[in-house]
Amino acid sequence: MAPKFTKRELEGHEPTRPGSPGQDVLLIHGPGQQYRLTSQQEIPSLNSPSEILVKVIAIGLNPIDWKGPDFNFGLPSLPWINGRDMAGVVVKAHKRLRRIRVGDVVLSPSTDYRDIRKAAFQEFSISSEHNAARVPRDMPIQSSAVMGVAYVTAAITLGICFGLDFSTIGSYFRAPNLLHLLQEVDPNALATDVRDECLNGIEELDRVKAGDWIAIWGASSATGMIALQLAKLCGLRVIGVADVARHGDKLLQAGADLLVDRHDTDRAVAIIRGVTKGSLRFGLDTVGKDTATRLQECLSTTAEDGRKSHLAGLTGVPKVPTDNVVLHKVPIKTFHDVPQVGECLMVLLEKLLVARKLLPPEVETAMGGLNGINEALDLLRKGTISGKRVVVPLDTSIERATITI
Length: 405
Ligand SMILES: NC(=O)c1ccc[n+]([C@@H]2O[C@H](COP(=O)([O-])OP(=O)(O)OC[C@H]3O[C@@H](n4cnc5c(N)ncnc54)[C@H](OP(=O)(O)O)[C@@H]3O)[C@@H](O)[C@H]2O)c1
Prior knowledge:
Blueprint: E1 23-28, E2 35-41, E3 51-60, H1 64-71, E4 80-81, E5 85-93, E6 105-109, E7 124-128, E8 133-134, H2 141-145, H3 148-161, H4 178-183, H5 192-200, E9 213-217, H6 222-233, E10 237-242, H7 244-253, E11 258-261, H8 265-276, E12 282-285, H9 289-298, E13 309-313, E14 325-328, H10 334-337, H11 339-354, E15 362-365, H12 373-382, E16 388-393, H13 396-399
Parallel strand pairs: 9-10, 9-12, 10-11, 12-13, 13-14, 15-16
Antiparallel strand pairs: 1-2, 1-4, 3-5, 3-7, 3-16, 5-6, 6-8
Helix pairs in contact: 3-6, 8-9
This protein binds NADP nicotinamide-adenine-dinucleotide phosphate.
């Protein structure tokens, strides 16, 4: 049987070639500044047996890569290395690791942005076994590089904030029930700012289940598209709010049950309320505070049967809460802080990708390697890339490769 996952020869990927001058990295020196290519920087070292060193092959760009420097957040000190998504070949790993080996091609979302060793904008980056997924043999590396953060965000929002039990995807997947898993973790392993969300964010009675409606405002975003697919795999009914003319076709293909155009928000609220007739209890907003506020208006507020509604906002929640609507912020750091959470999400991702049950976002390839990232981020900044993820290959052999999935 052909191997399921991609492997690469290490030749040409070793971090410590004789006379090696270190690595190239992209440094940000201050808010509002461009990233600067800097050579001869130290290659990061492994700090624990669960860590792996990855030679980066392709970098996926996220909105935060330009928003952080422009609006001065997510920069723990200066100068700093940014970058949240990448795929590459594992060049160092402890022999005792069970799933990941040297030579595996992996994708790795870097949610632990305070650890500069794990940033993506460098030639070599650190990850952990529980934060890396092997890339299927027939999947382009470019596609794998762009989906990690979006997948983790979508899975944690659905699985922790809304209590979706992924084991309902099907027996083959042995997928996690994240809320039950968290109950078994030492509470001290959970950061204090997310502990309450993880342990008490939603009552057992309230948890989302097959047949329930969920509305995703900003469904065409990478996170929205992945949340839509995960929700459909678990039998939810999904309403997607998006530019329907632009993105309707792909959202229908991903399984959306109802599409609502985003341009007239009053009408969008009226349509969602009309169709769900007061039964909508789950909303995910990927756009911002204003749209999250509109989404809140669509949710049931009666709690007649004792069940509340739940709204998660990726970039902001409504200023004024409504009775019986619980507002959630996504406890994304559980992905790296709690190895059990990271591991089961990465194993599930591998299985979904191998089975082609989860389609990655469409990609647009930007040239120039690390040096091309400033220009590529301008495309995101200006909003000229719509419904696609930008990928920046560092390996010139895949720079111009055709992408098919
Ligand atoms: N809190 C967290 O942990 C976390 C994690 C990941 C991401 N985020 C944040 O979540 C947001 C989404 O991230 P992403 O990477 O998934 O985004 P993305 O892939 O860059 O997508 C942005 C999408 O939003 C759509 N959009 C823009 N304005 C809209 C509106 N008013 N109504 C509906 N859709 C609209 C755009 O479509 P058109 O313009 O073509 O209509 C585009 O498809 C970003 O702000 C990101 O920083 C937060």
